[in-house]
Amino acid sequence: MPTEDPKLDQLKRLLGENDDLRKAATLLFWDQRVMMPPGGAEARADALATVSRLTHERFVDDELGNLLEDLKGLEETLDYESDDASLIRVTRRDFDKAVRVPPELTGEMRRASALASADWGLAKQNADYPSMLPHMEKHLELKHRYVACFDTPDETYDVLLDDYEPGMKTSDVRAIFDTLKEELLPLIQEISEAGDVDDSFLTGEFDPGAQQAFSLEIVRRFGFTDEEWRLDTTAHPFMTTPGHGDVRLTTNYRPHDTTSLFASMHEFGHGVYEWGVAPELSRGPLGSGVSLGVHESQSRTWENLIGRSRPFWRYFYPRLQEHFPQFGSVDEEAFYRAVNKVHPSLIRIDADEVTYNMHIILRFELEQELIEGRVDLRDLPEAWDARMDEYLGIDVPSAREGVLQDMHWSSGSMGYFPTYALGNVMSVQIWERLKEDVDVDEQMERGEFGEIREWLRSRLYVLGRKFEPQETIERVTGSRIDPGPYVRYLREKLAPQPA
Amino acid sequence: MPTEDPKLDQLKRLLGENDDLRKAATLLFWDQRVMMPPGGAEARADALATVSRLTHERFVDDELGNLLEDLKGLEETLDYESDDASLIRVTRRDFDKAVRVPPELTGEMRRASALASADWGLAKQNADYPSMLPHMEKHLELKHRYVACFDTPDETYDVLLDDYEPGMKTSDVRAIFDTLKEELLPLIQEISEAGDVDDSFLTGEFDPGAQQAFSLEIVRRFGFTDEEWRLDTTAHPFMTTPGHGDVRLTTNYRPHDTTSLFASMHEFGHGVYEWGVAPELSRGPLGSGVSLGVHESQSRTWENLIGRSRPFWRYFYPRLQEHFPQFGSVDEEAFYRAVNKVHPSLIRIDADEVTYNMHIILRFELEQELIEGRVDLRDLPEAWDARMDEYLGIDVPSAREGVLQDMHWSSGSMGYFPTYALGNVMSVQIWERLKEDVDVDEQMERGEFGEIREWLRSRLYVLGRKFEPQETIERVTGSRIDPGPYVRYLREKLAPQPA
Q: Residue A20 and residue B51: Cβ atoms within 8 Å?
């Protein structure tokens, strides 16, 4: 759709082409994880590197910089909320950040990440932190060089955080996390004192075929269609969209539990956010979710606020019993309590809704201590283990279940983790606002999710990257990120009931 | 691997990156046909168009032209047969052709092809040639503009042919096809007079799952491994390689016949050719099969020379009977004769080994008549039907089974068809040479294909695009393309035996 300004048209053409390249890279990545025979690894690494590098080179080219300069006048005449003004504003922000980083450094970071990621699997398996140490030292050195590309921030960590949660400051996150800590540590204590919930029936033999069929049944009721979605299996589940109207979920059916059901709902939440971005934004830099935190708020909405709720299981529990006859002797309330069991544990991705946040806070704190040199990389495992003991009262048997459990640090990602807990916080803020307009319990009890999805789509998903994350949340909920609703939700749902 | 010449290194880097982009486009295409949900069509068309256009723009850039100019001196010092000399020589040929065509014309041809291809399915279904006529007229006009980009050829058709079978002249093909016509028309007559072969048991109910299992069993014995290959289903089977060590076959299981077995072997033949290209050529313009004709020679080798041979079925017939118990009452010889039945029919892709060539000759002749204006596009269906009567003695009920049966013309491909019959001719030339070194019958009877595959790999596949097609055939067989062995093979195998 040509506008009347040739410079703006040129900007859109250029950004559209870059988005086409980004989608090609997305598909190369999805296929690598889901479809590619192992023999294709080397050629795929070359193809991904070239497509990513060309996309970056085209983006930081003077042509784009000059266009943005030329468009300043036009931008001032446009309505701030318009798609065109947002496109220019967001592109300028992305461009100003991108041009500060020399291509050599970008390349070095990418290589370091690829090399270290390749070694992480074996290091984790062998609980061999020392073998990863040289990679981690390299990453940390590169992070310091990266930070130095930007104006001196209030806190060094601000620069890392901004890549994942644009506009957010370390001090903002710290304030939110301090509240979480203050509220959740006593809650965890109370729950622990109330005694154990029986969840023994959640482990056993669960036919992967039945898991797949039931996962599909759930996400189809959520809005998954064969016309626009896929659900495949892979080792480490993720969601990606190689094009508008082409949403790809992946999941992993473990034969001895049914966690895949929640993983599928989680990935659906990521997928439906991308699915709902306004089509007219879809071929360009505004055409995706606005930040990792807001993305996680939606995966958590569909996994936890919906998928671990009583009304959801009111509808789906009889269906679950059909797929898995072993639940015939388990009553609905016992199942509900089991899938919501709060219990300190070692592994972040398996953690419950309450303790999950402590896993994140631990990582957020250690990341700051690392980048500020207050913890030495050589002492990281000990620092990790001590913090696990402090926050969750558990012993870490080895680096496999400790500092090496996640790929993030090994692949050079720092500043990413806090977005998970921010997502939890935002999910409830948005959900509370949604409940003012939609009787969610009544809907879910009937297995209906259309009104919920449509509310989220039309208020949040449709915006894509038009506004900054905090601004987006404010537009949807009326207030900035606020942990209040989240801690109230956790306490109401999960605190022990007085006898 | 850097050489000692910086210009040559630069050439290799540039061509390597272009090959990465080509592989990205290959994957975008494969996924579109095999995996993509329909909703992704528009975004995929954009991504494919951008990646293809950027690849082309980078290829015709002055940078490459200057490099080729600068490398002339080096090229003269290099051994003609070396990889480096071949790289420069083949790239120069590709470049000289590519720069002659203005980007606007390339773009117009691509658009016309996309638009017409989209309409072809419905036009074929409705046997509605008039609705395709405007597309065909556009294609023909574009072809004339395309031909005009090149030096005046001996025959206009030479320019079209050269895109699919580099170095081949229309007169060469005509000479080969004249021999085929002369030999095959009487052979078809003889066979027809000898009476009908019973192949009624080849139609019935054939479980697609069993077809898939048996297809896989066959191609695994041929050399398919999960490490480097995939076999998926799609509407119109094809083979593609999004990377070295990543060969993707597709096939289509029709529930009422077992043609998928031959289709799978056919695609394996294409796949194993790409699979066998020397790894050191794989990231660049030499890293694929040399021409459509030579490619087809290999698909036909594995489909017909192997897959329709007596020794092949000596080994596989009992296995077939296990997968499809309905063959329990059919003896091996009767089955062998049925899958080799020669009988004039309407549809090229279902034709037997003998009449197939007449389908091609018909198209080769009509293409020349069209491009030279001797047949008007409006009269094409009549010309088609008349030629079908002349060569195969059959009536064409409608354009669905006639001029619209293939997508090639509707999508703007002219000059492509003859490569199919050239492939048949070359397949037997190569096979005869192979038989001097390998006791193929003894191998196949034992279900062993390693020696055959290895001979073909080390003599032919490994060469990639280093030499022109005719030159490649000469290096492998000792002679230029020659229809003699092929017609002898057909007569020996398929002529009626004197009683």
A: yes
Question: What's the rounded Cα separation, in Å, for the pair B105 and B26?
Answer: 22
| A312-361 confidence digits (pLDDT tens) | 999 999 999 999 999 999 999 999 999 999 999 999 999 999 999 999 99
Tell me the chain A residues in contact with residue B38 when contact means C-beta distances shorter than 8 Å. Answer: 227-228
Task: Report the DSSP beta bridge partners of residue B250.
Answer: B232
Domain A155-499 CATH class label: mainly alpha
CATH placement of domain B153-499: 1.10.1370.30
Closest CA to B336 of B303, B305, B355, B314: B314
Contact B17 A44 (CB under 8 A): no
Beta bridge partners of B229: B247
Nearest-Cα residue of chain A relative to residue B283: A43
Please name which of B215, B222, B236 lies closest in space to residue B275, comparing C-alpha atoms: B222
Nearest-5° Cα angle at B180, B179 to B184:
125
List beta partners, residue B230: B248
- 3-state SS of chain A? CCCCCHHHHHHHHHHHHHHHHHHHHHHHHHHHHHCCCHHHHHHHHHHHHHHHHHHHHHHCCHHHHHHHHHCHHHHHHCCCCCHHHHHHHHHHHHHHHHHHCCHHHHHHHHHHHHHHHHHHHHHHHCCCHHHHHHHHHHHHHHHHHHHCCCCCCCCHHHHHHHCCCCCCCHHHHHHHHHHHHHHHHHHHHHHHHCCCCCCHHHECCCCHHHHHHHHHHHHHHHCCCCCCEEEEECCCCCEEEEECCEEEEEECCCCCECHHHHHHHHHHHHHHHHHCCCHHHCCCCCCCCCCHHHHHHHHHHHHHHHCCCHHHHHHHHHHHHHHCHHHHHCCHHHHHHHCCCCCCCCCHHHCCCCHHHHHHHHHHHHHHHHHCCCCCHHHHHHHHHHHHHHHHCCCCCCCCCCCCCCCCCCCCCCCCCHHHHHHHHHHHHHHHHHHHHCCHHHHHHCCCCHHHHHHHHHHCHHHCCCCCHHHHHHHHHCCCCCCHHHHHHHHHHHCCCCC
Chain B residues inside the 8 Å CB shell of A229: 37
Contact status of A148 with chain B (Cβ, < 8 Å): no
B20 interface with A at CB cutoff 8 Å: yes
Binary contact (A243, B42; C-beta < 8 A): yes
Q: Which residues in chain A come in under a pLDDT of 50?
A: none
pLDDT tens profile A435-451: 999 999 999 999 999 99
Which of B133, B159, B135, B134 minimizes the C-alpha distance to B146?
B159
- What is the pLDDT at residue B177? 98
| Catalytic-residue membership of A137 | no
Q: Is there a contact between B16 and B284 (Cβ–Cβ < 8 Å)?
A: yes
Report CB contact under 8 Å: A47, B244: no
Q: Give the pLDDT confidence of B358-383 residue by residue, as tens digits.
A: 999 999 999 999 999 999 999 999 99
Q: Please state the domain extents for chain B.
A: 6-152, 153-499
Residue B36, both tokens: 């993509």
pTM: 0.94
Look at A38 and B244 and tell me if their CB atoms are within 8 Å: no
ipTM of the complex as predicted: 0.93
Radius of gyration of chain A (CA): 23
A231 has which bridge partners? A249
Please check whether residue A12 touches B, CB under 8 A.
no
Vertex B255, ends B250 and B256: CA angle to 5°? 120
Q: CA-CA distance, B130 to B112, in Å (whole number)?
A: 17
What is residue B345's three-state secondary structure?
Answer: coil
Q: Which residues contact B370 (CB under 8 A, 6 or more apart)?
A: B140, B377, B380, B414
Count of other CB atoms within 10 angstroms of residue A351: 19
